[in-house]
Design goal:
disordered N terminus, TIM Barrel, 19% strand, 39% helix, 282 residues, eight-stranded parallel beta barrel, 12 strands, alpha/beta, two-stranded antiparallel sheet
């Protein structure tokens, strides 16, 4: 699958419990899809199932995992993967995305997205995990670049080279997180534009954009708990000029404002998207 084969476009938002009711009763024509974390829905009923069915009735569903980080030394737990496969088929997910990170060790969830060492050994492990998951799910896999705040050991590759080796050797798709690129560039003295230019546009099937916080010492933290900053909007525009009409998700996971404020961000993103890509809906 490549971007010219996509059927989901435009601006989306994450289906989160805190905003579910105003989201599902909204009349926001600029909203074109929702994204969810399967971990919240696999073999789960009640309110979660009701919200899922209401969302499916209105929008396409994209899925983004939190528990199968591709740095895991051990293969994913087969029972969960089988359940995930059924769920993805149910919601007709065009691909499934996960993070290029550690998210578990020795069968224990870390509840965080920890960076991998930028080494060739880590490339080999990530490629193996990606191929295993793709084959088990029988569905394309998209890999997301993460934000990180320290190097996990001495790097053998820079971040862009590391990403490129993983993508090419696994033949994976790319979920490009623009805010993570910006955060890493500021925290580690990197060139965000150069990193963006090196990512293979033909593999990008989705973009994430989010807000971040700035600590007193100037460190940027990818919180998903604030409005998107103008500098990140500018980087998003550059990304869209390179990759075209891929779906763009506004990530908000905490410190939720009034839904009208989130809606205004969606409208702003939609205006940028249509201006850059030439899309003419809604």
């Amino acid at each position: 699958m490549r971007q010219n084969e996509l059927t989901v476009h435009g601006i989306g938002i994450g289906l989160r419990q805190a905003i579910a009711e105003p989201l599902l009763t909204s009349t926001l024509p600029e909203l074109q899809f929702v994204e969810l974390h399967p971990e919240n829905y696999v073999q789960r009923g009640g309110r979660f199932r009701v919200l899922l069915e209401r969302a499916r009735a209105r929008w396409p569903i994209l899925t983004h995992g939190l528990s199968l980080g591709f740095g895991a030394v051990e293969p994913a737990e087969p029972q969960y993967v089988a359940q995930l496969k059924r769920f993805l088929a149910e919601v007709n997910a065009p691909w499934h995305s996960e993070h290029l990170c550690f998210s578990s060790a020795d069968g224990v969830m870390l509840h965080d997205l920890l960076p991998l060492p930028f080494t060739r050994a880590a490339v080999r492990v990530a490629v193996e995990r990606i191929r295993e998951l793709r084959d088990a799910l029988e569905r394309p896999i998209a890999v997301e670049n993460i934000s990180y705040y320290a190097h996990a050991g001495t790097p053998e590759l820079d971040e862009a080279d590391f990403m490129l080796e993983v993508l090419e050797r696994s033949d994976a798709l790319l979920l490009l997180d623009v805010n993570n690129i910006y955060v890493n560039s500021k925290n580690h003295g990197l060139d965000a534009q150069r990193f963006l230019s090196r990512m293979p546009a033909e593999r990008v099937v989705q973009i994430h954009i989010a807000g971040h916080s700035v600590r007193p010492d100037g460190t940027l933290i990818d919180t998903h708990g604030a409005a998107v900053r103008d500098e990140v909007y500018a980087l998003l525009e550059d990304a869209l000029r390179r990759v075209g009409r891929v779906p763009v998700l506004l990530e908000r996971d905490q410190s939720f404002p009034d839904f009208a404020e989130l809606s205004a961000e969606v409208v702003r993103l939609h205006a940028l998207y249509t201006r850059v890509t030439g899309a003419t809906w809604p």
